[in-house]
Design goal:
Elements lengths: L1 H13 L10 H13 L21 E3 L5 E7 L5 E2 L12 E7 L2 E2 L14 E7 L2 E2 L12 E3 L4 E4 L13 E3 L4 E4 L12 E4 L4 E4 L10 E5 L4 E2 L15 E3 L20 E3 L20 E3 L6 E3 L19 E3 L9
Parallel strand pairs: 2-4, 3-5, 4-6, 6-8, 7-9, 8-10, 9-11, 10-12, 11-13, 12-14, 13-15, 14-16, 16-17, 17-18, 19-20
Antiparallel strand pairs: 1-2
The structure holds 2-acetamido-2-deoxy-beta-D-glucopyranose (3 copies).
């Protein structure tokens, strides 16, 4: 995902050359505990007691020799998340990605990580509830996509004053979407796709600084047309595969929108004329209840019949001509 990569690159550009520093002795002991809790995987063979831990693989030190970043990708383990992570008080970033052998729940010791700003725990077998104690951290980005989390999205996440990137896609989360999950003055990114979320989308997601909203493949109901509007900053909206219901006739799509998927809902009315002024890279209105003639503007030729199939009575290029 390009946004994850973006955060990662921003982070990397912040790292000062720290390998000449001697690492903090307490942090070295904790890392050795983590290594042992992980079952001493081969990938961590540079983590050896007699050496400077700022030079070890998969970690970075701050300019005071404290461990502030741990990243583990595709390591071969079969264990729970090491509770000792909570004993690294200067940790700002944890990335545990593509580790299918990692299971169990997020350990309560994570509540001690008051400086944690980025938590990427993706594509693992970690399960259970998303814990309330994450609200004691300093998260601006929380990416838990493709795990086995269940239960509701905790209201406590709304207490994270800097959270601007949230990806909980591909879990088994149920219940409704809490309002006000995202904060801060920068653009917001919300990915909750492929869960079992139900109920209506809270109105406040129409007011904020949302760049991207992907709520596809859930069981959402109600009228989400408050999300649209000419001057909204959104670039990507994916609400496909839900049970959303509204009349599209008078909707104005955001100027900067480049991706719009509303397929597989219960959308009625006509395709609005304003669509011809928006240059989309991707459009899908298929499997709805739309009717009437498609607008003919300059960008409309970009979309194939595939974008409109299975509606009530849409007609006009690229579909069959309308009866006059
Ligand atoms: C993973 O580790 C287990 C046990 O240590 C080993 O049997 C297996 O071959 C390893 N798998 C890979 C892909 O390295
Ligand atoms: C939380 O993060 C912000 C920057 O993102 C930083 O200015 C602030 O000092 C952090 N707070 C703690 C407790 O680390
Ligand atoms: C839109 O979605 C439908 C159903 O999922 C699919 O068959 C069609 O190919 C999609 N159209 C485009 C342009 O991707």
């Amino acid at each position: 995902m390009s946004i994850s990569l973006l955060f990662f690159l921003i982070f990397l550009s912040d790292i000062s050359l720290s390998s000449s520093l001697d690492c903090n002795a307490a942090d070295r002991t904790v890392l050795l505990n983590i290594k042992s809790e992980l079952g001493n995987p081969l990938e961590l063979s540079t983590w050896s007691p007699a050496t400077n831990c700022c030079t070890w693989s998969n970690v970075y030190c701050s300019d005071t020799g404290r461990i502030n970043n741990i990243y583990l990708f595709s390591i071969n383990v079969s264990t729970t998340i090491p509770p000792s992570f909570g004993d690294l008080p200067e940790l700002e970033t944890i990335q545990l990605q593509t580790i299918p052998g990692l299971y169990g729940t997020i350990p309560p010791s994570f509540s001690k990580l008051s400086k944690l700003e980025i938590l990427f725990l993706t594509d693992t077998s970690v399960s259970g509830a998303i814990p309330d104690f994450l609200s004691r951290t300093n998260l601006s980005a929380l990416d838990l996509h493709k795990n086995k989390f269940s239960g509701p999205i905790p209201l406590s996440l709304t207490k994270l004053p800097r959270l601007q990137f949230l990806d909980l896609s591909g879990n088994s989360l149920s219940g409704t979407i809490p309002p006000c999950l995202l904060h801060g003055t920068d653009r917001h990114y919300l990915y909750l796709a492929r869960n079992k979320l139900s109920g209506e989308i809270p109105q406040d997601y129409g007011n904020g600084d949302i760049d991207t909203i992907d709520l596809s493949h859930n069981r959402l109901t109600g009228d989400p047309s408050f999300l649209f509007g000419l001057t909204k900053p959104m670039t990507k909206i994916d609400l496909s595969w839900n049970q959303l219901e509204f009349d599209m006739t008078r909707v104005a799509f955001p100027h900067h929108l480049n991706y719009l998927d509303l397929s597989h809902n219960r959308i009625k009315g006509k395709v609005p004329k304003s669509l011809q002024d928006v240059q989309l890279r991707f459009l899908n209105f298929s499997y709805n209840e739309l009717c009437g003639e498609l607008p003919k503007g300059r960008f409309m030729a970009n979309y194939k019949a595939d974008s409109y199939i299975h509606n009530k009575c849409l007609c006009g290029t690229p579909l069959p001509p309308c009866m006059s």
